[in-house]
Amino acid sequence: MTTTPPKRVLTLTERLDQHDHQILNVVRDTLLLQKEMRHINEARLPQQVMEMSRIIRDVADTVKRRDEEGPDETKPWNWATMTATEQAEAWAVLLQWRREVLKVRFPQAYNKMLAPCWYRHPDVVEELSALYVSWSYAYVDKERSAFRAADFLDRRLPFTTQRVVELLATCSSYEGATHQEPQPKREEHDDAELSDFLLPLHERAQQEEQAQQQS
Predict the structure, then answer these.
(1) What is the pTM of this model?
(2) Of the candidates 149, 150, 129, which has an alpha carbon nearest to the alpha carbon of residue 139?
């Protein structure tokens, strides 16, 4: 029968040497970590990471909100107050919609309103602009609904088609017709006569303003 010899008990000096070696390793690792953290702080990496995280979070929230809410509320166009840049953008939208939606989805109405010079008639442009806004209100707006779509199909589209046909009648009433600028059938009113007609109204307005100031 063999017996395993007992392990030698380390002396106190040997154990202290081992602890010293472990302590030195910890100190060295700590110094290296402190050095790396100093480099990170000098480079402002934590602030940059936090800022990037904030930007990514804001973008994600914006995308999510737009997906949930849908497009912005549809508003009518006012060509009279648009800047040149706004008009250029509006023309791009109107032309694309006329070509890709009106012509494709509503060909009968499109063909009735078809005229080579339609864009030279301001009143026709206003009508088509309103028709586009009505379509967007019915199909694209965040509050779009089946009722709006039905209203567009039953009222807006046929009424606009009829008005545009009437507006273009001068240019499209005969084969080979050329563009005709719309001309007023009567002479413009006389400014002096109109001023005399409006004078009593202005006088009453001044009297009302003076009465309000005295009260």
Answers:
(1) 0.56
(2) 149
